[in-house]
User: What shape does this take?
Amino acid sequence: MSLLQIVLRSLRQHMLSTVITAFSIALASGLLMSVWVVKDQARENFTGVDSGFDGVFGARGSKLQLVLNSIFHLEASPGNLSWEQYERIAADRRVATAVPIAVGDNYKGYRLVGVTTNLFGIEYRAGKKYAVRDGYLFNPERKQAVVGSFAAERLRLKVGDTFHPYHGLIFDENQQHAETYVVSGIMEPSNTPSDRVIWIPIAGLQNMAGHNPETATDVSAVLVKLRGSSSGMMMNQEFNLQGNVMTFAWPIADTLSKLFNKIAPVEMVLRAVALLVALVAAGSILASIYNSMNERRREIAILRALGARRSTIFAVVVLEAGGIAALGAVAGFGVYFVIMSVAAWLIRQETGIVLNPLELEPVMFWAPLAMLVLGALAGVVPAAKAYRTDVAENLTPIS
Amino acid sequence: MLLNIENLRKSYGTPDGSVQPVVDVASFSIESGQQTALCGTSGTGKTTFLNLIAGILQPDDGLIELDGRPISGISEAGRDRLRARTIGYIFQTFNLLQGYSCVENVLLGMSFGPGADRSRASELLERVGLGQRLDHLPRQLSTGQQQRVAVARALANRPKLVLADEPTGNLDPAAAAESLGLIRETCRENGAALLLVSHDRGVLGQFDPVRDLAEINRAAAWPSGKEVQP
Assistant: This one.
């Protein structure tokens, strides 16, 4: 029998503790991978979000709030800009495209965004434009809506359905508007936050019954595509540093990076917890095998009497620990997939950001490997005990 | 000469700090293929004596030569290797591994020697009458059958010397007689010398000559009359 067969047999003989210990390793490995992947993909997808725009103009205030509101459709608007301000931005020779948006209403928690139709001419990703999957784009003169794919799926809306918008960004059934909108189209999935949005003509949102008539032409933000990066620097100087009327959030990725830098300590704590769980799991291997050593002293003595060297016994125990860790590391991918599926669903539901659990990440290589090494190291202590087993003393009673 | 022992000594420390001699053998030898019985009652150091010959224990002093090679002075790993290839050991309690089937127990015996050979393992088990029980676990066998597995395992590596420590101690008289016959026959068939220790007169009566361990081992006359574990 080979060393490997002896190890496998021993694992089978101690099936219950093998399975329980391997499960703790699987949890640790899955948790490690999940924490790393969520953190890395979330940062990457938030900062590299495909919006098709270089910057955002909004009322004087927080750049982060402006970006979250206008690109991610989260948070409240920091304030409004007048239509004249929008027109001035659109006419600026440094601006290639300007798209005004207005927010303030929702339908069952999914936000309505008033927009001009030039949004749909923008490439949100190289070679990709927002496209209508079913139906057609709204007519700016009519009360029509095109619904993002995710929102349509969750709200079970289809072309031809009608709905009443609700006032505010948070759903309150007592805040229903009188207007009736008809779903004219359902968007193709873009895997961007836009999938969670119901697009309507900007005039429709501005003039919704109950809104302040004095601000009926205001916009919440203006999304801009610039003619070259030097334009961004010039406008940053002009509007943020010298001006005090508007805020220009540019570049969008930098604004979000600052958010992630602020929450970096939280990420670090999460990582530390995941690493601690990995250490505890390795400790469970140590405890499980170490505790079995007493009952295995005779077995070890018999193997030694048959000619097994101390180093062979040591190797058997270390390989056994490594085997449990290997089983756990493999099962860890299942745990990872379950955690990631739930996390990806939740994050998409709340932010529209799409995480991909199947995307290969470096942690998927090093985390299982680290668990394997940790597991094998955890086997060293019981292996040392096995190594020291006195053959004559444990073999048979002395006559 | 297969086994040659000279001035072999082994002692253990006692809880009160003194040293307890357990084995003190001036001279002992076995020829190749010879079958020798040692009569040893409890406390005469027979298990320690066999463990020294098997290289499981290291003597304090003296010479043990097996097949012309001194084993008392070599490293523990060297003794392990030598034991695996040259010596078969039959224990009173059989010492079968309970999680392994009959054939696997025999294969294990081979694993640390020349290598596992399933056909030889099966052949040996058939020879001891367990051809139909290759895949049985030890707990599924009678005591006598377990003893036969131990015999097959001891012979698996074609040893030059088989050590048997009270091999029939756990068997009823009929099974003991049958088992002893089997051990002697199979050792003869495999060309192995046999050194058997027992205090059972029925067993010893089948050997000629029988040597008294109390006479060979000067430490057996120690006043306490008991071996002391370290």
